[in-house]
Amino acid sequence: MEKTRILVTGGTGYIGSHTVVELINAGYEPIIIDNLSNSNIDVLEGIKAITGVAPIFENIDCKDYTSLDRFFEKYPDIKAIINFAASKAVGESVEKPLLYYRNNLLSLINLVELMRKYKIDNFVFSSSCTVYGQADELPVTENTPIKPATSPYGSTKQMSETILSDSVNAYPNMKCILLRYFNPIGAHPSAEIGELPNGIPNNLLPYVTQTAAGIRERLRVFGNDYDTPDGSCIRDYINVVDLAKAHVNAVQRLVEQKNKKSIEIFNLGTGRGVSVLEIIRTFEKATGVNVPYEIAPRRDGDITQVWADSSLANTELGWKAETSLEETLLSAWNWEMRLKEKREAASK
Ligand code: WQD
């Protein structure tokens, strides 16, 4: 029987690649397009090593309307799109706002226009808890008021959600699910795929694993004078494989027309807030590896604390984060060790 084809833009990226694996496991045929601006084509080997399937891959930039149009001509039977293709470094977005607006918004607008042209109804969007800013009340629900973004990256996520909401209202048959991720961490348990930060990591976990591996001298904890139990910031860290599985549930909901509204929003988190210092302690306990760190000044733009109420995703998507923090941190460490093996093999 023909498998249902799902387009995964940004599918060689961190969350995209883990989602491709789970789509294959669920019996779908994911097709990846990616411009490889922030990922590596070797990811395809990792996906094949895990699933036995080498997904179709096209090196396309979603900002290039003509190439994207040709893609849809070539693959007319796509049933849904999951859009990961976007720039995502908060700090970089402050330095290069136009790069973020052009990349994240033009890519999205091209995709929505071509969905209409090729009569594709189903769209899953990679959004972020960053749209909430520092919420007044915690945990955050999907009805928590949106606050003015604190970075161009955050603005592009808010604007993207508005573009999709207006598009769904204007274009009959279009159905959309916005997935607001909290903090994705960890790697596939096989250590065949994981996070591949370019250069010095912005995010906490890759910096922790690179420090533990001796690549970085020490971790800077950006502030321990916040109004939290141990003074360091609190986030809701979600296992990347658990997060990937939520995308399969979202695609199923749309393809099987189980959605209750033309646009639905779901928070994807564990419901548990964890501090930076707790992450360090838990990582050391889970791996037995020491993480040298120092307390550094606060980082501009950081909010004090956020964690999710994901009960809507639990009930409507039939999804729940299941992997423990310890297991997730260990998977991140195993992936860092695998990267070290790959680097050493490449240098021989
Ligand atoms: C987490 C905590 C830092 C690095 C952002 C985006 C979100 C998503 C993930 C893209 C904070 C602290 C970090 C370090 C530290 N975007 N930290 N030392 O800022 O919560 O979320 O990235 O995927 O949309 O908003 O994630 O991992 O950068 O920081 O102390 O070297 O770790 O201050 O409290 P953040 P993060």
Number of contiguous helices: 11
Sum up the overall morphology in one term. globular
Average pLDDT: 97
Strand content: 15-25%
Describe this structure in words.
With 348 residues, the protein is of the alpha/beta class. It has eleven helices and 13 strands. The protein has helices spanning 14-25, 43-51, 65-74, 90-95, 97-117, 152-170, 204-212, 240-255, 276-287, 311-317, 325-347, and strands at residues 5-9, 29-34, 56-59, 78-83, 122-128, 175-181, 183-185, 219-222, 234-235, 237-239, 263-268, 274-275, 293-296. The strands form four sheets. Strands 3-2-1-4-5-6-11 form a seven-stranded parallel sheet, sandwiched between helices. Helix 6 (152-170) links the parallel strand 5 (122-128) and strand 6. Residues 88, 90, 128, 130, 183, 202-204, 207, 219-222, 233, 235, 276, 299, 302 line the site of UDP-4-deoxy-4-formamido-beta-L-arabinopyranose.
Concise structural overview:
The chain is α/β, with parallel strands linked by helices and 348 residues long.
Q: What brief labels describe this structure?
A:
348 residues; alpha/beta; 7-stranded parallel beta sheet; two-stranded parallel sheet; 11 helices; 41% helix; globular; binds UDP-4-deoxy-4-formamido-beta-L-arabinopyranose
